Amino acid sequence: MKQASDSLPLHSRTPAEWGEDVLADPIALLADHAFLEKKAALNAIQLLERWPKEWLPGWVETMTGVARDEAAHLAQVTRLLIRRGGRLERGHRNPYANALRGLVRKGEVISETLDRLFVSALIEARSCERFAVLASAARDEELAAFYKALFSSELGHFKVFLRLARKIDQSDSVEARWQEMLAAEAEILSRQEPGPRIHSGIGRRITSG
Ligand SMILES: [Fe+2]
Ligand SMILES: [Fe+2]
Q1: From the CA of 91, how far away is ligand 1's center (Å)?
Q2: What pLDDT does residue 92 have?
Q3: Which ligand does the CA of 72 lie closest to?
Q4: pLDDT of residue 4
């Protein structure tokens, strides 16, 4: 799994210590995680009829498949959370995802859809990378197995979002835009506060070695 995560095109890597730090508060981490799964399901539902221009074979199947997987993840993560004595809170902040959404170019249907697919792919890729770190850091076998299973599922989502992006825009500028977005993602993540969240920043203790 470590190898599979190394092949992700992300521009920064999460150190093992981040996993140990966030797992110190597994309830808070699971509560944050539940909202990410909910948001991922909603995102796929919102994208359902957003294929740009003509009908695109595979679009609807991709979005319904992702929505179904994310709803299943949401059920799994809330089950773990509640069984461990936690609960969902109303409302949730995710400055990382909000900043990524801010990168979407508005107004022109192809570029806007392309950017939305890229943002979705970036969140999947980063979540995937973080789940790999969590799977190796977790001492709790149930959590380790859970993160490992999610890693594979989110990796599949990352790939299908990218595939759709390349289907809707086959121009030469697509690769450059993807590289730009990958660089922006690493920069946005580096600005996040540390804490028990899936997309949190790296604490000072870790960066100062
Ligand atoms: Fe998920
Ligand atoms: Fe996903």
Answers
A1: 19
A2: 85
A3: 1
A4: 79
CA of 50 to the centre of ligand 1 (A): 20
Q: Which ligand is nearest to the CA of 74?
A: 1
* Alpha carbon of 44 to ligand 2 centroid (Å): 9
Rounded (10°) CA dihedral 28, 181, 124, 165:
150
Work out the average pLDDT over 4-21: 94
Residue 93 confidence class, pLDDT cut points 50, 70, 90: confident
pLDDT over threshold 70, residue 166: yes
